[in-house]
Specification:
- It is a single chain.
- It is built from twelve helices and eight strands.
- The chain has helices at residues 2-5, 8-16, 30-37, 40-48, 63-69, 73-81, 96-103, 106-111, 119-124, 134-143, 162-173, 184-189, and strands spanning 24-25, 28-29, 128-130, 150-151, 194-203, 206-215, 239-244, 250-255.
- The strands form two sheets. Strands 3, 4, 5, 6, 7 and 8 form a six-stranded mixed sheet that branches.
- The longest helix is centred in the middle third of the chain and has 12 residues, at 162-173.
- The radius of gyration is 20 Å and the shape is globular.
């Protein structure tokens, strides 16, 4: 449980008290749990203390396919450095490479010896676009009930900087938990499996950036052309996030 929650200090204490690092609890090893949820520091600690990079429960999965499936690049690197078997399969019979390919994680596919130029990989990769059409942005804001005075288009080069702010907000301030998918833990777990569609607006002379986050469509993940997919017919569990442009802090967030 400590590994699953990412509590590095408690994991270290339990090991110091004699806990077996390769023990199976709840169907998985501590290393598999930490790899699943992306707790890099816990994975590193467990490996340092002798955890088996290929250890798994009889009906479970070894750590590498989990890390590959959820896009935990640093954990994949740590496991490979400790001799993780790239041909090991998860409970569904898929290797880490197959998991990363199906999820569109180009960087992990390359680490595992696959081809990042494979069309099937690129098709599943999450996209990040800037919607520059003012009318499309206006329609999206109106549908989302977001008040604005004028449309403002941010710089595309700045867009990746908002991810860290959103992660920090989810970890600290997230309060919408209507079902298992809306918990902070599960949103962070699926963070790389969201497409991002950005634009901006001005309200009361303050600039804001709005981001529509739509789950990757594994049946074909083509980005919309200069518009927001939520407004034009693509459903799914989405996040609508408004950031203050100057500070990049989250101002408003909704999940539906």
């Amino acid at each position: 449980v400590a590994a699953r929650e990412g509590d590095k200090e408690l994991v270290a204490l339990l090991i110091a008290k004699g806990a077996e690092v390769n023990a199976v609890f709840g169907g998985d090893t501590a290393l598999s749990d930490a790899a699943y949820y992306g707790h890099t520091e816990v994975v590193e600690l467990l490996l340092t203390k002798g955890a088996d990079a290929n250890g798994m429960a009889p009906a479970g999965s070894s750590p590498l396919p989990w890390a590959a499936y959820f896009g935990h690049t640093q954990i994949v690197k740590l496991l490979l450095a400790r001799g993780a078997d790239v041909d090991a399969k998860n409970a569904d019979g898929k290797t880490a490479l197959e998991c990363a390919s199906g999820a569109g994680f180009v960087d992990i596919v390359a680490l595992l010896g696959g081809s990042p130029d494979d069309p099937s990989v690129i098709r599943n990769e999450a996209y990040r676009i800037l919607v520059m059409d003012h009318q499309a942005t206006e329609r999206f804001l109106q549908a989302a009930d977001i008040e604005f005075d004028t449309i403002w288009i941010p710089q595309k080069s700045d867009l990746t900087e908002y991810d860290s702010s959103l992660k920090a907000y989810i970890q600290k301030d997230w309060s919408i938990e209507s079902d298992m998918y809306t918990t902070a833990k599960n949103l962070l777990l699926r963070f790389r499996r969201y497409n991002r569609e950005y634009s901006g607006f001005v309200k009361d002379r303050v600039r804001y950036v709005v981001c529509n986050m739509v789950p990757v469509n594994e049946a074909g993940n083509e980005p919309p052309q200069n518009r927001f997919s939520m407004v034009f017919g693509r459903g799914g569990q989405t996040l609508k996030v408004v950031f203050k442009a100057a500070s990049k802090n989250v101002e408003r967030i909704e999940y539906n």
